């Protein structure tokens, strides 16, 4: 009897006797040497680079062959040649941050017909275009925690403003909607949102809008800027103005961008998910899909290495978790 | 005099043939190289992707070649593509029947082309400046129509046309449109009096005018054709990606112009063939495909396309100037010989 046949018989006997149930329901080992293509929105965007690096770290950890390819511009169709190439190269999985929710769907469907597993991250496609979407943070969670952070800093009372991106930015508008929901709770009755200003995600405009806000509302206690361009520009203005230390600034930004302002006290706390973790989780989800441990159905649980276990939610959405809060104590541990 | 003219035209013909032969040679090398480097290159599936990838650019390059031959340029083609795609989305959302919506898009494209033509012909403005203006203007209109939203959910029978292939072949359906139009433009340019007149305009505008060519009307028609075909490219794009957005096809004008120049149509006008442009489109498509299959970074891809474009402009000039120098030297030698002979007598 050759060793393999022996092992099979052994397992069969074990399961017959009931001893095999110890292993029942547990994950199959993750397959090695899977070919995983990671397609960021564009390749020259530092945020996307950090995210892709996270995915590559997970691939290395698992012994997969990961690679990052993608366009340099973010047009709707720019990613299509890379999807087609992945199909031609018979990759096992595609991780993609979609530039357009619909344009990629027919091509991703074609990939899935060829047994290629598709995981979207950061920006989703229509659900029929992928098995799993890695959502960096729920819009509700971001809205709530930004209001909570500000409330803590200004003692739940006073006027505050929001410095957003463009008036029609989808992400920012959803977050602002959830901030307004959160503000309806009784503990925030003394807090008042006096103005939503738009810096259009331009540094100069965000800078002058901040200036305008502080002059127009002398009683302003705080500003929330849920955009990395806005918060950096606002921080630059406040740090050299007499408002420094009097007005609380918080929002979403990256540690490298805001380090000096946290150290000089302009910003006490700000938030962001870790883009590298988004990529890391996506690569794990793809490897688990390829190994047959999950299908992307609601309620399935899988292990994601250092991040622990994650559960697939409605429509195949997997949530990364609450955003990380950065402050003077921990900011030096991060470099992105 | 007449002998001299036949002489130049044969020489010009020789030069043109050699440019296309060179492109065909490069094409063969690229295909051979691709097949050697990558075993997936010669698959049916890869070829249908390869051809589909540049179909919009190929469509726009056809009328553009004719425009460049007359010594003009149209930089607004990709903006007309975006405008047509946006209008198609808007009309479909407003529940307009699809055939009617397509017709309206083509008409809008033709109207946009007519605007270009009107400004260029009526006010004798340089087409470079006018179409830089309409490049921005028409893209702006596209944003007014659709804002930053996207329309998807196009009817499956139309998107099937966008991503499907002709049965039993690897040729994408939209590419069949290109083949048909390429034949039409080939006949028009090389086998009709209209074609000869276009060359005449490009060769010497004043001479063409004095020999009775209706320059204004021809140019106007070319710009209208360019607009309508760019709108067609917009419709193809929309169905291929099932997505109508105002920023669709941004930057495609540069690829189309690159293909036209590489195809041997010269910036000065008066020269170039449809065959050359078709070969150069295939060449660029294949090079892009081979490099993408080999996971070459996008920046390198751009560098390659840019270098090809520069080479395509530089090379004919170098060849021409070397020939000129050689001809002058030959003439000088003849004169010297003749002079020596006459003194000997």
Overview of the structural elements:
- The complex is a heterodimer of chains A (336) and B (345).
- Chain A contains ten helices and 14 strands.
- Chain A is of the alpha/beta class and 336 residues long.
- Chain A folds into two domains: 35-136 and 275-321, Response regulator (Rossmann fold, 3-Layer(aba) Sandwich), CATH 3.40.50; 139-272, Rossmann fold.
- In chain A, the strands form four sheets. Chain A has a six-stranded parallel sheet with strand order 2-1-3-4-5-13, sandwiched between helices. A four-stranded parallel sheet of chain A has the order 7-6-8-9. A two-stranded antiparallel sheet of chain A has the order 10-14.
- In chain A, strand 8 (220-225), helix 8 (228-239) and strand 9 (248-251) form a beta-alpha-beta unit.
- Chain A starts with a helix and ends in a 9-residue tail after the last strand.
- Residues 10-25 of chain A have low confidence and may be disordered.
- The radius of gyration of chain B is 23 Å and the shape is globular.
- The longest helix of chain B is centred in the last third of the chain and has 47 residues, at 298-344.
- Chain B has a single domain (2-301), classed as ABC transporter involved in vitamin B12 uptake, BtuC (Orthogonal Bundle), CATH 1.10.3470.
- The two termini of chain B are 30 Å apart.
- The chains are: A alpha/beta (336), B mainly alpha (345).
- The A-B interface holds A 43, 67, 69-73, 75-77, 80-82, 84-85, 87-90, 100-107, 126, 168 and B 40, 43, 45-46, 49, 53, 147-148, 150, 152-153, 159, 163, 237, 240-243, 245, 247-251, 288-289, 292-293, 295, 297-299, 302.
């Amino acid at each position: 009897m050759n060793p393999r046949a022996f092992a099979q018989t052994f397992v069969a006997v074990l399961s017959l006797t009931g001893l095999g149930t110890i292993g029942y329901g547990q994950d199959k080992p993750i397959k090695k040497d899977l070919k995983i293509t990671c397609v960021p929105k564009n390749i020259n965007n530092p945020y996307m680079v950090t995210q892709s690096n996270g995915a590559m770290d997970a691939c290395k950890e698992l012994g997969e062959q990961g690679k990052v390819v993608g366009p340099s511009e973010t047009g709707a169709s720019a990613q299509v040649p890379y999807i087609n190439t992945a199909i031609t190269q018979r990759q096992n999985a595609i991780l993609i941050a979609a530039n357009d929710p619909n344009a990629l769907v027919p091509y991703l469907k074609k990939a899935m017909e060829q047994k290629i597993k598709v995981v979207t991250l950061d920006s989703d496609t229509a659900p029929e275009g992928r098995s799993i979407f890695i959502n960096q943070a729920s819009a509700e969670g971001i809205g709530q925690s930004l209001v909570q952070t500000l409330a803590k800093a200004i003692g739940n009372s006073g006027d505050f403003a929001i410095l957003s991106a463009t008036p029609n930015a989808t992400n920012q508008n959803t977050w602002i909607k959830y901030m307004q929901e959160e503000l309806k709770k009784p503990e925030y009755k003394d807090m008042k949102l006096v103005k939503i200003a738009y810096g259009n995600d331009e540094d100069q405009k965000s800078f002058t809008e901040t200036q305008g806000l502080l002059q127009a509302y002398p009683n302003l206690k705080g500003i929330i800027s849920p955009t990395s361009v806005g918060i950096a520009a606002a921080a630059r203005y406040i740090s050299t103005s007499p408002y420094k230390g009097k007005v609380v600034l918080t929002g979403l930004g990256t540690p490298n961008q805001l380090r000096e302002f946290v150290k000089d006290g302009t910003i006490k706390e700000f938030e962001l998910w870790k883009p590298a973790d988004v990529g890391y989780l996506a690569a794990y989800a793809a490897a688990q899909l390829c190994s047959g441990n999950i299908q992307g159905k609601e309620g399935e649980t899988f292990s994601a290495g250092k991040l622990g276990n994650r559960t697939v939610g409605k429509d195949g959405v997997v949530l990364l978790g609450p955003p990380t809060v950065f402050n003077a104590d921990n900011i030096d541990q991060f470099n992105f | 005099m007449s002998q001299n003219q036949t002489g130049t035209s044969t020489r010009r013909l020789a030069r043109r043939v050699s440019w296309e032969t060179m492109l065909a040679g490069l094409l063969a090398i690229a295909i051979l190289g691709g097949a050697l480097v990558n075993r997936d290159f010669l698959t049916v599936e890869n070829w249908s992707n390869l051809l589909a990838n540049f179909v919009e650019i190929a469509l726009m390059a056809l009328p553009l070649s004719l425009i460049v031959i007359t010594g003009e340029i149209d930089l607004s083609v990709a903006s007309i593509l975006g405008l047509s795609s946006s209008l198609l989305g808007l009309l479909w959302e407003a529940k307009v029947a699809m055939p009617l919506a397509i017709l309206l898009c083509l008409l809008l494209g033709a109207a946009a082309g007519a605007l270009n033509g009107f400004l260029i012909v009526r006010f004798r403005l340089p087409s470079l400046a006018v179409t830089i203006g309409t490049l921005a203007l028409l893209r702006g209109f596209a944003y007014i129509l659709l804002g930053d939203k996207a329309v998807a959910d196009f009817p499956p029978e139309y998107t099937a046309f966008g991503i499907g292939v002709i049965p039993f072949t690897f040729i994408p359906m939209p590419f069949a449109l290109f083949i048909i139009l390429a034949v039409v433009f080939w006949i028009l340019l090389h086998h009709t009096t209209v074609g000869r007149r276009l060359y005449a305009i490009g060769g010497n505008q004043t001479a063409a005018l004095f020999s009775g060519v209706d320059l204004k009307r021809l140019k106007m028609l070319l710009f209208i054709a360019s607009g309508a075909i760019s709108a067609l490219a917009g419709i193809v794009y929309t169905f291929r990606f099932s997505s109508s957005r105002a920023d669709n096809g941004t930057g495609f004008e540069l690829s189309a112009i690159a293909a036209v120049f590489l195809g041997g149509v010269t910036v000065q006008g008066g020269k170039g063939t449809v065959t050359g442009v078709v070969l150069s489109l295939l060449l660029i498509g294949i090079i892009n495909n081979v490099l993408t299959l080999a996971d070459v970074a996008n920046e390198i891809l751009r560098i390659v396309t840019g270098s090809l474009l520069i080479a395509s402009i530089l090379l004919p000039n170098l060849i021409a100037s070397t020939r000129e120098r050689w001809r002058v030297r030959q003439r000088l030698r003849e004169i010297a010989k003749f002079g020596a002979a006459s003194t000997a007598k």
